[in-house]
Amino acid sequence: MSGFVSVTRRTALGAGVALLASRGARAAGYPDRPIRIVVPYTPGGTTDVAARFVAEPLSKALGQPVVVENRPGANSIVGAGAVAASPPDGYSFAVVIGAHAANATLYKGKLPFDPVASFAPVSLMMLAPLVLGANARLPFTDLAGMLAFAKARPGTLNYGSSGIGAAAHLTMEDLQVRTGIQMVHVPYRGTAPALQDLISGNIGVMFDSFSSLRAQFESGAVRPIGFASATRPAWAPNIPTFIESGLPDFVSSTWCLLLAPASTPREIVERVSAEVAKIVRDPAATERLRGLGFDAVGSSPEEAGTFLRGEVDRWAKVIAAANVTIE
């Protein structure tokens, strides 16, 4: 029996060494074919913009095509799930935003993957502080006016978001909890249809990134109410923050985080992370990102993992306090 156990252990050890050697060989020759970045949303939104921003320069850096694939559906679960189920070989990545972190709580026990454990964090690529916009026909111009309007009409002012669990949705829920106002949530499948209804007046207000709302601010169709940021962004110095407007510590952003399937070779994760950091931190790229309403980050894999876990915890508390459900 002892001989059998010894042989079995040697066999298992040999298999483990062979597996590591195989992964090392794959990493050494990486990449040798096209890479895909899955965006779990429709084209044109914040996530899509971020993915396409890095795709072309990443392709040049790695010497292989980097293709952006839009896989929308089920509050980003379809696209993220496709990557979680992909081989961990460095040829499939996902760009996720706040909804991915919120899904850990909203869909607890119902997801086909774990939003943290099923992935290898690669890079927190960029952040975009959220800004609140209001239909220009509404009779208020600042946060105080909006709160007074909403408090006088509980349950009548409606707001849109790109979907249940999106950072824009949960930020508005947090605002309601902290100020005592009551509004009606109208979720959409992406930012574009929500923005159209904001312009037409079918919804009154919504949070989103500055890049999504900038054209409407400039046209006058939508009025900026304030940024959920610690300080006024350099690209929009005339729009006040919620903190300035009397709401202490009200800070929230959407973000774009690059993930690979769990067990992707460490060498590949670190290489892609380093290339992404070079791309977004390049001075010209950083300036372009500011023009789109983003702050460049380009974090390490460890920093990205810490950030993601923190966002899961943060939104879990908001979801519980506001009693948010997926129904």
TrEMBL record:
Q: Does the keyword rRNA processing apply?
A: no
May I ask which residue range the UniProt record assigns to the signal sequence? 1-27
Extract the Pfam families matched here.
TctC
- What keywords were assigned to this record? Signal
Q: Which InterPro entries match?
A: BUG (IPR005064), Bug_dom1 (IPR042100)
Output the CDD domains linked to this UniProt entry.
PBP2_Bug27
Q: Which family does it belong to?
A: Belongs to the UPF0065 (bug) family.
Q: What is this protein called?
A: Tripartite tricarboxylate transporter substrate binding protein
Q: Which organism is it from?
A: Belnapia arida
